[in-house]
């Protein structure tokens, strides 16, 4: 018998991040990535702005701009490098990256489009269950294809495409407690 869920989720309404320069953020998300800017707010008392971009399926990525926000701390509040280029670790409670779901049949086309628009991207990663967890080719074991890149504020973004349907065999690891390490 299926367990009743205590809440009905319909996706992510919005993820709110903080940017250094709202104009550059709009240029990147609206003009480079093509996400429609759907709502803008000037916060009371000239305390900043809050803008929302449609990232599909009714979900949004939103940004606050605060004139007195502390500077970013790469390697703590977010990864300092992209996967394949060094440590991808970030601190507890931080946001490591945003994976944007893109159609699998358009993945290679979108990868080229990012390059054509001047975005510095990683190689395509075909994530699988091998010891290195990545394949040079798309095989039956690949479960997601990914490419990573930074936005103007160093927020790590990923274009990701699922390539298989998951089943019970895909949940095969016990969670690790900090007390066990």
Overview of this structure, please?
By secondary structure, this protein is an alpha+beta fold. The chain has two domains: 60 residues, 2,3-Dihydroxybiphenyl 1,2-Dioxygenase, domain 1, CATH 3.10.180.10; 88 residues, Signal recognition particle alu RNA binding heterodimer, srp9/1 (2-Layer Sandwich), CATH 3.30.720.110. 12% of the residues lie in helices and 28% in strands. It has a five-stranded mixed beta sheet with strand order 5-9-8-6-7, covered by helices on one side. Strands 1-4-3-2 form a four-stranded mixed beta sheet, with helices on one face. The longest helix has 11 residues. The mean pLDDT is 93. This is Glyoxalase/bleomycin resistance protein/dioxygenase. Keywords: Dioxygenase, Oxidoreductase. One of its GO terms (molecular function) is dioxygenase activity. It holds the Pfam family Glyoxalase.
Topology at a glance:
Blueprint: E1 14-19, H1 22-32, E2 37-42, E3 49-56, E4 59-65, E5 98-101, H2 107-116, E6 125-127, E7 134-135, E8 144-150, E9 156-162
Parallel strand pairs: 1-4, 5-9
Antiparallel strand pairs: 2-3, 3-4, 6-7, 6-8, 8-9
Summed up:
With 181 residues, the protein is α+β, with helices and mostly antiparallel strands. It is 12% helix and 28% strand. It has a 5-stranded mixed β-sheet with strand order 5-9-8-6-7, with helices on one face. Strands 1-4-3-2 form a 4-stranded mixed β-sheet, covered by helices on one side.
């Amino acid at each position: 018998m299926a367990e009743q869920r205590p809440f009905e989720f319909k996706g992510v309404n919005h993820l709110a991040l903080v940017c250094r320069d709202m104009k550059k953020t709009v240029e990147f998300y609206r003009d480079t990535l093509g996400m429609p800017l759907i709502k803008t707010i000037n916060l009371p008392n000239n305390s900043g702005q809050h803008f929302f971009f449609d990232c599909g399926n009714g979900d949004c990525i939103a940004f606050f701009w605060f004139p007195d926000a502390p500077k970013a701390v790469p390697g703590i509040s977010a990864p300092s490098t992209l996967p394949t280029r060094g440590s991808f670790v970030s601190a507890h409670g931080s946001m490591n990256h945003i994976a944007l779901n893109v159609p699998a049949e358009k993945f290679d086309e979108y990868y080229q489009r990012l390059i054509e628009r001047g975005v510095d991207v990683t190689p395509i990663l075909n994530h699988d269950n091998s010891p290195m967890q990545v394949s040079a080719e798309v095989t039956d074991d690949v479960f997601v294809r990914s490419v990573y890149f930074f936005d103007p504020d160093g927020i790590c973004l990923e274009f990701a495409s699922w390539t298989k349907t998951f089943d019970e065999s895909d949940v095969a690891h016990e969670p690790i407690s900090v007390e066990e390490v």
